[in-house]
Write a structure and sequence with these properties.
The chain is mainly α. The chain is built from 6 helices and 3 strands, in the order ααβαββααα. α1 (12-25) crosses α5.
Length: 135
């Protein structure tokens, strides 16, 4: 019997568990540098977020960092909000299905690391260069 005949798509709770496990598996130095980052799992980014980022198709955004990155914080800033990393379940599932060359856990980890990179002040180009050097 095919193991998928009895399975449903991973839920938001399943994604939360995947993201938590991915974060816990990061090297101690990265977790320490990330500090207090709140992880949020949603099906899609809100319409307001998509409009603000000028993204027309909600499937084009799989993750998002919100907050002031660690390089731009100042002790004179007002009480900081807790930085948040959002992972969007449906776009990640869509990319996973289209790619077919990575596990869902690997893709969740990739998106999580990318967003934590933004938290640490890296640009998309910086993150891409770092991840390319690891391969």
């Amino acid at each position: 019997m095919n193991p998928w005949t009895e399975r449903a798509a991973p839920s938001l709770a399943d994604f939360e568990a995947l993201a938590g496990a991915a974060f816990a598996a990061l090297p101690d130095e990265i977790r320490a540098a990330a500090g207090e980052v709140a992880l949020h799992i949603e099906d899609f980014a809100s319409d307001e977020t998509l409009d603000r980022l000028e993204i027309e198709d909600a499937f084009d955004l799989s993750g998002l960092y919100e907050g002031v990155n660690r390089l731009h914080r100042s002790i004179s800033d007002p009480a900081p909000i807790i930085p948040r990393v959002f992972l969007f379940r449906r776009p990640i599932l869509d990319e996973w299905a289209e790619r077919g060359d990575v596990t869902l856990g690997e893709l969740v980890t990739h998106v999580l690391i990318h967003e934590i990179g933004h938290h640490m002040g890296f640009t998309d180009d910086d993150i891409d260069a770092l991840q390319s050097s690891d391969e």
